[in-house]
């Protein structure tokens, strides 16, 4: 007879004792279970003991999380969390340096457990750790580095639980942590931990963030970035982007200008982007944030329309006109009356591609506002020959075939702002930075110079007229978007690739994609496709489940900030368990046996996605959370009598589709993702083409051919015994 559902078979071990194999009744109070376990080992005072998971982070088991105990779980009997916290804090306050160090070693692995953390915090554990960190200089030199590293790690782990606000930290404590960033310490493990703690402070407390900004010189962060230590570089970049995000727009511009003067861009390009070691996900995210902040400096100009009463802006427009039509040392209006000169200027502005004789009316649109004027001036000053050739070449064409420079520049600026998301808030998870933006000064303006020449080239290839302007811009958008997606490492490489993507090549790519997406609509082919679908859907289902068995590394996202903690989840080979657990970045994928947590597929009830997920429901509906909604999914499952959730944030849209499809398959629901639709279409197209390979160039009728009438008689046979001549 099978045991009741609320009874699980587990093992409990204790140091220097023979393990116990018991049947745990989940309906029995945990205190009674502990009493029985202690009695079996002849231990008195069972209230002084607690159960922990033996694997992973050795979390304490309480009435709230006991439902996570599954058949085959291994537990260990240890000291109760309140007594353990009291003993360790006593060790931290002892006069023995070795005693303090040993207490810290035991404290760090337990600090990630919420139950234990609450006990430590309630006993002033944060203040004790803060005192050790503040008095770090008094530690013996032999143990200074290890004691500081352990103290900083334990302090950060305890603060991550959110029991205590970062804003409660004292100014002397923050200044002491700043000292560990500014000092040249022998132990290389201390600065990254100090930098990580200051990043949390900066992101969580504006007031303390200003203190960090004033106390940590930018030059010191540059020194840390130049050390060939990936962890130190990542944490220094994290604090740098946190300081930039917390600064006002004016301060941010001054900070970025200073960093660029100190050659930060060149260092990132040469020593981080082109480093021999692969770049970590966290560094890629911080480079994305830095790129977004750089481009964000353009937003004020993008949002500001041209002021027709501004003398400076009117002069800039005249400079643009004169650079195109007036020979050096000459004036096109010399010797003419004022009315004649105004008429000539208006005609030249029309030749320049403005829709109105008064160009200020064209630049009143926001976006792009004054940013379009900045781009046109930059192009005319830094590529004068290309600018003159563009304008004069189009001035000599027929009116309907000329490519309007000004109109094209305004629309191209809008297009680039959309492609590069200028002015949009930074995503919490994105990593899609463009390496070429760190390989070139004035990257946005240089990209415009490439784009405006591409517009003229594509205009001629399409033999476009004024009526085709929107069509040409759609092609240019596709050319730029496809090339940016390749992530070229330099502007020259971008220029080469985008110029190779001619209008003819764009048409060929469109046709290829259309052929992949579309099939013949003949009824026999549609019928064949319908018959193939079940088999191919089974193949896709098998692939999705195999992908779940391989497992994926997920990143933990809190409601407060982006975390650098990772966890791994996979499906067991027999498709009966989801196994998961925390792991460190850069570590090799764990084995199934090393994953401490299990979720039986039989306990899963539903799959939630997007805004329905509990872990993103409270984050609001701002633009910055849109990417989280698109990548979030949760599994609801039974945990005792209550419903619990296992929450995910997929690392990419493709992983989101693969996991939601695989989980839907496990739940017996249809796989309805966009990726499944694309995969099914691709497999159907390929299989149909293979089936019809011998019918190439043979027209397939819409109706099957008629069945011929039966023969007049059936008196025919074949005698196999007669040899053929």
Describe this structure in words.
This protein is α+β, with helices and mostly antiparallel strands. Helices cover 53% and strands 10% of the residues. Strand 5 (552-557) and strand 6 form a beta hairpin. The relative contact order is 0.05.
Rg value: 34 Å
Query: Which structural class fits the helix and strand makeup?
Result: alpha+beta
- Beta fraction of the residues? 5-15%
The largest sheet, given as strand count, sense and whether it forms a barrel, is: 4 strands, mixed
Total count of strands:
11
State the share of residues found in helices, binned by percent.
40-55%
Poorly predicted spans:
none
**Number of contiguous helices:** 29
List the helices and strands and how they pair.
Blueprint (H helix, E strand, L loop, with lengths): L6 E7 L6 E6 L4 H11 L8 E5 L20 E6 L1 H12 L4 H14 L3 H9 L2 H10 L9 H17 L10 H12 L7 H15 L1 H10 L2 H8 L4 H17 L2 H13 L2 H10 L7 H16 L2 H5 L7 H15 L12 H14 L18 H13 L1 H12 L9 H16 L22 H20 L6 H17 L5 H10 L2 H15 L5 H28 L1 E6 L4 E10 L5 E7 L13 E4 L3 E6 L4 H4 L8 H6 E8 L2 E8 L3 H15 L6 H18 L34
Parallel strand pairs: 1-4
Antiparallel strand pairs: 1-2, 3-4, 5-6, 6-7, 7-8, 9-10, 10-11
Give a brief rundown of this model:
This protein has 725 residues and is of the alpha+beta class. The protein contains 29 helices and eleven strands.
Essential attributes:
725 residues, four-stranded antiparallel sheet, 29 helices, flat, alpha+beta
């Amino acid at each position: 007879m099978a045991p009741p559902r609320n009874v699980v078979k587990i093992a409990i071990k204790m140091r220097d004792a023979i393990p116990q194999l018991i049947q745990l009744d989940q309906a029995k109070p945990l205190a009674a279970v502990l009493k029985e376990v202690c009695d079996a080992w002849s231990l008195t005072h069972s209230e002084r003991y607690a159960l922990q998971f033996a694997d992973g982070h050795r979390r304490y088991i309480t009435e709230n999380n006991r439902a996570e105990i599954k058949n085959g779980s291994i537990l260990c009997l240890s000291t109760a969390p309140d007594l353990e916290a009291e003993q360790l804090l006593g060790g931290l306050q002892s006069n023995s340096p070795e005693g303090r160090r040993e207490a810290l070693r035991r404290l760090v692995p337990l600090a990630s457990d919420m139950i234990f953390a609450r006990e430590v915090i309630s006993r002033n554990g944060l203040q004790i750790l803060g005192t050790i960190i503040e008095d770090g200089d008094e530690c013996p030199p032999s143990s200074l580095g290890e004691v500081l590293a352990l103290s900083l790690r334990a302090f950060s782990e305890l603060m991550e639980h959110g029991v205590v606000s970062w804003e409660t930290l004292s100014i002397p404590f923050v200044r002491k942590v700043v000292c560990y960033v500014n000092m040249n310490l022998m132990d290389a493990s201390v600065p990254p931990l100090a930098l990580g703690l200051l990043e949390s402070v900066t992101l969580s407390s504006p007031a303390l963030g200003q203190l960090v900004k004033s106390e940590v010189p930018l030059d010191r962060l540059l020194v840390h970035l130049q050390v060939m230590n990936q962890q130190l570089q990542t944490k220094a970049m994290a604090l740098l982007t946190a300081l930039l995000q917390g600064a006002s727009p004016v301060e941010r511009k001054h900070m970025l200008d200073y960093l660029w003067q100190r050659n930060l861009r060149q260092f990132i390009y040469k020593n981080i982007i082109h480093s021999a070691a692969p770049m970590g996900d966290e560094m890629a995210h911080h480079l994305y944030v830095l790129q977004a902040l750089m481009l964000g400096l353009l937003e004020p100009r993008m949002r500001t329309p041209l002021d027709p009463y501004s003398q400076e802006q009117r002069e800039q427009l005249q400079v643009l006109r004169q650079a195109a039509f007036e020979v050096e040392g000459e004036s096109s209006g010399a010797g003419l009356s004022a009315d004649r000169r105004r008429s000539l200027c208006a005609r030249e502005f029309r030749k320049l591609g403005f829709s109105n004789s008064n160009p200020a009316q064209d630049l009143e649109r926001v976006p792009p506002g004054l940013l379009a004027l900045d781009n046109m001036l930059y192009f005319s000053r830094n590529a004068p020959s290309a600018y003159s050739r563009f304008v004069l070449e189009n001035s000599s064409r027929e009116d309907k075939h000329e490519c309007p420079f000004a109109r094209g520049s305004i629309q191209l600026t809008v297009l680039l702002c959309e492609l590069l998301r200028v002015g949009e808030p930074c995503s919490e998870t994105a990593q899609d930075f463009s390496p070429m933006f760190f390989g070139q000064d004035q990257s946005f303006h240089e990209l415009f110079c490439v784009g405006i020449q591409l517009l003229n080239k594509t205009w001629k290839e399409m033999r476009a007229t004024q009526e085709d302007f929107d069509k040409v811009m759609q092609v240019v958008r596709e050319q730029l978007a496809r090339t940016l997606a390749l992530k070229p490492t330099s502007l020259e490489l971008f220029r080469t690739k985008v110029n190779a993507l001619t209008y003819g090549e764009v048409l060929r790519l469109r046709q290829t994609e259309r052929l992949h997406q579309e099939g013949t609509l003949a009824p026999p082919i549609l019928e064949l496709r319908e018959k193939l679908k079940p088999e191919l859907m089974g193949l896709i289902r098998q692939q999705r489940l195999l992908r779940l068995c391989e497992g994926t590394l997920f990143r933990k996202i809190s409601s407060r900030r982006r975390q650098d903690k990772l966890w791994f989840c996979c499906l067991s080979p027999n498709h009966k368990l989801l196994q998961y657990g925390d792991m460190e970045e850069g570590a090799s994928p764990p084995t199934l046996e090393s994953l401490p947590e299990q979720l039986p597929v039989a306990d899963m009830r539903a799959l939630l996605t997007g805004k329905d997920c509990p872990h993103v429901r409270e984050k609001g509906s701002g633009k910055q959370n849109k990417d989280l909604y698109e990548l979030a999914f949760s599994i609801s499952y039974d945990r005792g009598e209550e419903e619990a959730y296992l929450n995910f944030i997929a690392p990419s849209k493709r992983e989101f589709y693969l996991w939601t499809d695989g989980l839907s398959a496990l739940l017996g629901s249809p796989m309805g993702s966009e990726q499944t639709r694309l995969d099914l279409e691709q497999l159907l197209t390929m299989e149909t083409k293979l089936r019809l390979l011998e019918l190439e160039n043979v027209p397939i009728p819409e109706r099957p051919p008629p069945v011929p009438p039966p023969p007049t008689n059936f008196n025919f046979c074949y005698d196999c015994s007669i040899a053929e001549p």
